[in-house]
Every structure is written in structure tokens, then in C-alpha cells.
Amino acid sequence: MSKYTTGEIAKLCGVTVRTVQYYDSRGILVPTELTEGGRRLYSEDDLKRMKIICFLRGLGLPIDSISQILSEDDPGSVISLLLEQQEQALKQEMEERQDRLAKLEELNRELKTIKKISLESIGDVAYTMTNKKELKKIHMIMLLTGIPITIFQWTSIILWITNGLWWLFAVWVVIAGIFGILISRYYFKSVAYICPQCHTIFRPAFKEAFWARHTPATRKLTCTTCGHNGFCVEVVADLEVSSDE
Prior knowledge:
alpha+beta, five-stranded mixed beta sheet, two-stranded antiparallel sheet, 8 helices, elongated
């Protein structure tokens, strides 16, 4: 069986000789053999124990806690639990870092679209980014509620063509018109817009918002504060947002 000196075991575990001696003085890594000349010799089991100690220290555990764990009847089960906890902590940290990276990348993309960057424009981008999840929820609600109307539309068209039941399509036109007005009112009460000039968050009148030119993220509106007319960025409306209705 191999024997290791203090220096050898320190080198194999990536620590200093003083560290090995310290663990010996604390009684958590006692050498298997002590020669007549007072030289400490460590066995393979001592080497494995030292590696476990180094690992637990790497997790941030104090010496006293490590001593208690190693003195347990079944230290392996305790260490296994620590490994699981460390794995979960690392996964969570990776997810948080990935989320931060995604936000930084998105912020960088948004800023590249702005000709003149200011503190206000950065604030607008940050506000828009934090609202995107809520905005997606609103869009999803509109999509899901519109599915039955779409199914009814195509059913009525097919029955009109195949069986001549034109009145079903007429019913759909009425229902679709009512649905369109209701869902539009819900939508424009749920969203607001950021003016690119004065950076005010406002809610336009329903009629103006309904007929305004728009893109997936903007709508051409007149700011209720400064009167600027142009494309404004869409965000989720807060309760305190001013309305022009």
C-alpha cells in the first residue's frame, strides 16, 4: 500500500504543507503512521479523506462542521445531500446568470436602434423589457379568446359552400364585430405607450389607438402630454397611467 509524506499529500490535493499540518492539529486528518524520526506518513485512505476535506472546504463549510460530518456513522449520506444541494445552487446560479445575460443582450439590441442615447431612452428600454412578459400574457389571452371565433368563421364558410347555410356566416359577422370591439377595448385598457420625446407613459383615446398605424411593438399616436405625433412604444398599463378617454 502506498505511503505519502506531508509534502506529497499536500501536492496531490493542491494545498500547502501548512494546511495538512493544520488539519492534523485539528484531528480531522491524523496520519496513519508516524516514523521513529517523527515523520508523518499517510495512507490511500488518508488521501481520500483529505480530498473530501478539501471538497467540503471548497463548499464553504467550516472545519468544525467538517469534523462533525466525518465523525458520523454514515458520512457518505451527508456528503451526498450536500452534493445535491450544491448542484441545485449551481443550477439556480446558472439560470440567474443566463437570465441576466439575455437581458443585457436585449438591452444592447434595443439601444442600437436608438439614434441618440440618453438616460431617459435607457429608462424607456429598461421599462419596456420588464413589461414584455406581461405584454405577452395579454397577447396570448387575445389569441386564445379569438380561436373559437376563427373556428366558427371557417365552419360557417364551409357550411355555406357545401349546404347553402349562408345565415351562419351572417351570425358570425355579427358575433365577430361585437367580439372585435370588446377585445379591442380590453386590449387598449391593458396597454399604454411611451412617448419618445417627453418619455411620458400615456394611454390614448380608444378611437385614435384603434385606427392608428402600428408595428408589433409601436403605434403612431399623439402624446397627451407634449403633443408629439409619432410612433410610441407599447407597454403594459399601470393603474396610474393617464388616459385621454
